User: What shape does this take?
Amino acid sequence: MQINEPWWRHAVCYQIYVRSFADSDGDGVGDMAGIAQRLPYLADLGVDAVWITPFYTSPQLDHGYDVADYRDVDPLFGTLEDFDSMLARAHELGIKVIVDVVPNHTSFEHAWFKSALAAGPGSPERERYVFRDGRGRDGSQPPNNWKSVFGGAAWTRVEDGQWYLHMFDSSQPDLNWWNPEVGDEFESILRFWLDRGVDGFRIDVAHGLIKKQDLADLARYEGLVMWDQPEVHDVYRRWHKILAEYDGDRMAVAEAWTDSPEATARYIRADELQQAFNFHWLTAPWSAAEFRKVLSSTLEAVGLVDGTPTWVLSNHDVVRHPTRYGGGATGLARARAAALTMMALPGSVYVYQGEELGLEQVDVAPEFRQDPEYRRGGKVGRDGCRVPIPWSGDAPPFGFGPGTAQPWLPQPAEWSELAVERQLKDPESMLAFYRELLTQRRTLTAGIGDEVRLLASAPGTLAFSRGDGLVCMVNCGSRAAKVPTEAGELLMSSGEPLVEARGARRLAPDTAAWFRPA
Ligand code: GLC
Ligand code: MG
Assistant: This one.
């Protein structure tokens, strides 16, 4: 961190998927007390902050992204007091805490939705959601042709014949953000958690709040056209002011899936949010040309709004990146290289739990799958990146919880090799690499400046300098490639050290390295 900058600007933030991080009470589901117990592990790993996925009262039909009460902790995860002690413990260890806020939709068990159903068509209670009459002679057709992200129609019919909109599961009715009452309620929810001392928010489906107001049929179905409407930014201008009223550089990071880095950067204009996830980096395939494209377009877009970039490779919604990069030894080598590359960049980095252990996507057997995306759409779903973390021991539950109670998703037997306890003893492990990487990042990037300059480099590679202190190169090609002349002493490598061949220093394929500038 540079002097006088807000804590989040260069923070490494670790995403905790609450169900799958650590279980304190042996019910097979992670919880608040489990997080509190494992915080020292995160402090040793060297993270600056954690983002905790939703732990609010919820029927858990989308594992907490279906909130029934925004101001309480689900008994599955503990109590508000457990949250407070976890937060206090994190702060003692110097770790900031970001909580998830889910403003696009509630659960169908939320008091508002229940009263909307009871109050009937035309009532102010229904105006908090998006209720419409159906089409067709008897109104038996949905009001428009929108589809749910999880598959099937985005509308469900209720007993009195009206339909309600749900861009996700039918248990997640969308709120009507054109109604000022909704904005006021979320201001109060933000204040509730800010008053408790949270350092920031991750905003679920941040681009989705405001739908195209006419709810017209979509001519072409390109997922985003009914979302990312200009008016959504007014919501974040208001949230900016709320955050600014509190001390300690409180912040928010948007989960905004957009069509371009420019559209993403609109969420971080000076009077809006502090950060938005850079999903363009996450979706890039293993290719130097693609990384280069995302890198320059991100920095340009973020530069135009004077914002801070973010970098992320995995989260609870996507296939884990070692698997995306080809799996096996190759996937893991590339994952190390991608991490080293991303950690050289200015801005903040998000690490998804288990990526520091080199976990791969798990092929969860159909009978265990729980994701609504699987239930509704028949897609494999996201359970494979949500399998509980292996902490210790040789057999499931690998210390995830006390005793032998099995976790809510089965863990692969091979994970005995990957348990935290085992990796801590192995200097070659992914965990050892991440610990070293976070330490080096802290020291080597401190005060070097944020300017990124792309360097000419061999085909299949990407090289850049960061400020006046670092040169980074990643080799996505299939042959060892010459290190650029700007690179001096080797500081750290994600794999093999350099080789000397034909009179030049060369970096092996699927490897990245940091150098002092020549
Ligand atoms: C976000 C969450 C995802 C959830 C969805 C609906 O994309 O990251 O897990 O299913 O929103 O809330
Ligand atoms: Mg538990």
Q: What stands out?
A: Residues 23-25, 27, 29, 31 surround magnesium ion (ligand 2) (CB under 6 Å). The chain has a mean pLDDT of 96. The longest helix spans residues 180-196.
